[in-house]
Amino acid sequence: MHYITAIMSAFSSSVTSIFGKLSLNVGASALQILFLRFFFSLIISGLFFVLLKKKINIKYLLFFGIFGIVNYGIAAYLFFYGLRFLNPAYATVLFFSNPIFVLIFQKLIYKGNFSVFNLFAVVLSFTGIILSNLAEKSIGGSENLVFGSLLVILAAIFNALFITLVGDKIKKLQLSPFESSFYTFLGVTILYFIISIANKELYTIKPDYYIYGLLLAVFSTLIPLTLNYFSLRKINSTTLSLIMPLEIVFASILSFIFFDEMFNILKVLGFSFVVVAPILERVKIKK
């Protein structure tokens, strides 16, 4: 069941780069759309929090709020800013270099041991990303391809740190996924609210931006994060980070439909490697 919810999370997350790109195309800044995304996420998760009759715990708020800022503040902003220079499917592929960094963080922080299957799955995922990068260049990326790519890879590093630390902690806490999500969104919304006021971008939000903020809140934020918190109660962070690249398949299909994104054999091969990596990881666990 926990593997199914992780795959469902990947499917839901696949619209992030699509709705993000569309919102930037109508003139929204990365900061404005991120504020709306997490503001709506906070409202929806807050309703569940109240219905469950939960009370705010300052300790949990600080933990999930701070690490929520690492993932949905720093990482999300870097991803959305880099998306200005990249095609959605390619940006998604780059972002899912995060299994490599999860592996590194687990080794450095928790001194974890990894099997040959673990290492091979990560190497396969990384090889797929390299092939996709070469294919994107051959198709003809923007002149800021390298800069945009670096921004998204940095986003992947911060996301990996979030998955590693929160994945370990959430197994020890008796919290429902809705509680964890509420604390995360509260911390992130406060951050973006303060920054939006300081930059005076809060006052220039147009009605067109609200629909994309709401769509991102539901499909890219609330649903996948809640499902991820549920999955992390039973599966480890490395396995989750290897399942999430399945999002690439869905993002690629949507990018083709909405943006006519071009593909060649090398790019398809790279995407395939990234998708096969979590399957190998699952085979190892069943054995």
Written account of the structure:
This protein is mainly alpha-helical. The protein has one domain. 80% of the residues lie in helices and 0% in strands. Helix 11 (237-243) runs antiparallel to helix 13.
Q: Secondary-structure map with pairings?
A:
Elements: H1 2-13, H2 16-25, H3 30-51, H4 58-82, H5 88-95, H6 98-110, H7 116-139, H8 145-170, H9 177-198, H10 207-231, H11 237-243, H12 247-259, H13 265-286
Keywords: Cell membrane, Membrane, Transmembrane, Transmembrane helix
Subcellular location: Cell membrane
Membrane topology: Multi-pass membrane protein
Shape annotation: globular
Quaternary state of this entry equals single chain
Number of strands: 0
Give the distance, in angstroms, between the N- and C-terminal Cα atoms.
18 Å
Could you spell the SSE succession in H and E letters?
Answer: HHHHHHHHHHHHH
The profile of the biggest β sheet is: none
Give the helix proportion (percent range). Answer: over 70%
Structural class: mainly alpha
Average residue-wise pLDDT: 78
Residue share in β-strands: under 5%
Low-confidence stretches: none
Membrane topology: Multi-pass membrane protein
InterPro entries: AA-Vitamin_Transporters, EamA_dom, EmrE-like
Pfam family, one: EamA
Protein name: UAA transporter family
Question: Keywords for this structure?
Answer:
mainly alpha; 287 residues; single chain; globular
Could you give a short description of this structure?
80% of the residues lie in helices and 0% in strands.
